[in-house]
What does this fold into?
Amino acid sequence: KAGVTQTPRYLIKTRGQQVTLSCSPISGHRSVSWYQQTPGQGLQFLFEYFSETQRNKGNFPGRFSGRQFSNSRSEMNVSTLELGDSALYLCASSFSVPGYEQYFGPGTRLTVT
Amino acid sequence: DAKTTQPPSMDCAEGRAANLPCNHSTISGNEYVYWYRQIHSQGPQYIIHGLKNNETNEMASLIITEDRKSSTLILPHATLRDTAVYYCIVRVAMEYGNKLVFGAGTILRVKS
It folds into this structure.
């Protein structure tokens, strides 16, 4: 069974631009969560989607948004990029909303210059 | 708002058991303890989880104290490839579903 895939793997953007990251969950998994990882803050929860609905959201500004499609694929968008948005963005999928075993993708490394 | 405390780093000799402790003294009765590890900034890898009973799988064993205030992850025969950051996590229930609240983790260095 294929794992969680994320595209692109690396991205360089300029301050003020916006970016869209994509995540394809493991086949059959309906819950997708997004996390941001930085050296200073560690791994922080962004939001979780299930059946195309955002169920939970972490403490991030409204510039961070996401969506989930009917095939469970998910995208997250960051608008008006700031230097502090440079991070590894990780997507994790699990079978159901309770989110038992979450399986993580390799991440997208975003650099904002 | 991490609910767990782990030592920042540990060393282990190759072939020996690695015992990674975790304190979660404020854990609620229905909150699970999860362990993940992360190698070279790859995505975290699920290892094991438990509620109150000890658990074992092909990767590791999880020992949870009777009062559930602490736990220990045991890698029975550590190899160099087990060098990673190990996260002990409490799965926090939210209005819908759950989220994983990661702490700083323990850097495990397996040495030959």
User: Anything to note?
Assistant: Chain B touches chain A through 22 residues (CB under 8 Å). DSSP finds no helices and ten strands in chain B. The radius of gyration of chain B is 13 Å.
